[in-house]
Each structure stands twice: as C-alpha cells, then as structure tokens.
User: Fold this.
Amino acid sequence: MKKRRCSNPKLKLSLPSTDSIEKFLTKTGTFKDGDLLVNKDGLRIVPQDEQHEPRLINPSDNQLTLADIDTIKVIGKGSGGIVQLVRHKWTGQFFALKVIQMNILDSVRKQIAQELKINQSSQCPYVVVCYQSFYDNGVISIVLEYMDGGSLADFLKKVKSIPEPYLAAISKQVLKGLIYLHHGKHIIHRDLKPSNLLINHRGEVKITDFGVSAVLTSTSGQRDTFVGTYNYMSPERISGKTYGYKSDIWSLGILLLECATGCFPYSPPNKKDGWINFYELLETIVEQPPPSAPSDQFSPEFGSFISACAQKDPNDRKSAQELLKYPFVSKYEDVDLPSYFTSAGPPLATF
Assistant:
C-alpha cells in the first residue's frame, strides 16, 4: 500500500436534509426506516402491505415500557449516546439501556435502524439479548440484557492478560456466536473487539453492538463498504477490497492475541514515540507479516489457532465452524470462567 500524504481518504460527511429527516420521523412521532417502525410504545416490523397506513403498537401488548424502569447510573459513553444501568420497578431486574440522540447524520441513522432490526431478530445465547426498543422525543432507547461483568476490555484492564485455559473457554463462546451471525443470520459484525464482547458473573461471553453490522442479502456474504474499528480491521478491508465473514475471524485472532499478551499485537517502530500517525499503523497491518503467538510463551495449539485466524489472505483463514474444532478450543476442560470473571472484582450492579 502506497504511502499517503495530504490525499488521505476521509469519510464524506454531510448534515441530513429536511426531506431525509421526514423520511425517518413521521408526524406520529415514529422513527421509521423501511419496514421498521419504533415509537414510545415499542418496536415492530411492518409488512410491506401495511406501509402506507401503519398501525402503531398498542402499549397494552408490551410487558416492558420506559415508565417501568428506574435509572441507576451511566455505565458507558460513546459517540452516539450513553448506556445506563436501569432497574425494573416491579421485578428488580437489571437491564442496560442504550440511549441514542437522533440529531445525527443520515449514515448513522441507517446504522441504528440496522442494529434495531438485528436486535429484534437475534435469538442466540452468545449474542446480547435485546428486550425492546423505543423512540420518543428525538431519542432512541434500546433495552438490552445487562452483563454485570462489563466488557472484555474492562476485564483486561484489571487482569492485564488472560491465561490460555480461560481464553479457550472465551473463544468457544465467541465462535458459537459468530457461527450464528455468519451462517444463521448472514451478518458480518465488522466491529469485533474486546469492548464489544460482554461478560457476566455466570461466565457467559456474548457479542454486542451491531451499530456497524450489515445483513447480507447475497449468498456470497461479502461487502465492499469501509466501516468499523481500524485497529482490529482486516488487511483486505483497510485496502478497500471486498470482504466477507472472514474479516471477523481476523479481528478475533487479533483481539485474542491482545488478551493473551496484554498488549496490542502491532507495536510501533519506535515504542517510545508511538505511531507517527494513524496511516502508519494501517500500512503496517497491510504490508507487514501478520502477528503470531510467541512460541516460547504459548502452547503450539494456541499458536496454531491464532495463525488460522490472522492470515493476510482471507482465503487462508479458517471459518468459525472450522475453528471451533481446533485442538486449542477443546484442550482445556472444566474451566471455571464464573470464578475467574468474579475474582477480578465485584459486578457493576453491586452498590
């Protein structure tokens, strides 16, 4: 990849027009995109023959409403909004409430609509559950399963690195989640990283945050768009080439290697000064050999697993189904993830 100077490619951003806003927000106070309708009473997917005269959700049909939950505290912040810890008034059950202000760009609106559709249709024990979504007064609120251990990124900050047996148990769950997304839902996550893997005191690991995911209508399972977190992005995506499900496999290998070693696999040439600029890191990922697990620190099984993920050519990478059969995943039996996760500190819901 040639070095770029002032001609670095940048995303072209523009403010939404009045017409585009009306396309999403109807006069009835509804967030609308295609067949998806969300209002203050909840979410529904409207059949095509009902598009012209949509029937809004009856509040009495929903078991969960925003009026039924109390806000405890903010547990996460991002560019699009915040995540709150909330509690159901009548049952005491905790939820995570993702709150998104809708004064945002058209491209982000589309991503949110996509996330709502994925959340609505996903039913997998390795994907974070979405209970309901609401739109009211310019705000989208998504009620999600609360994972009381936070993210794998949070956990990694506490323990610095994660031993192989626990990584094997984590990998098994993430791979099962990816099998569901890739082959069950035809979805490329496109933003797989430690902060998008959530854990809880039961030892469960679940994939979350589909804000940049895409449902694939083609059987080839490939996209040519450029969205996601760059550090974990596959070489073919950085190069602007067509990419498929295997791009998530590259990200999995990079994040697992980071968890194993306690540091991001790509080190800057001058560790004291760090990366000169963002594009230097991208060039390194594209042009240099892929990272690997040091053989003097890790087992051959782990090294083989990482190498099967972190191949420059996506055709040389294994699929999630193939990786689930790798010796590393089954090498360690009876791993106590619940105790390991809780040993790092109390859950976020402890006051």
User: Anything to note?
Assistant: Residues 257 and 299 are 13 Å apart (CA to CA). The chain has a mean pLDDT of 80.
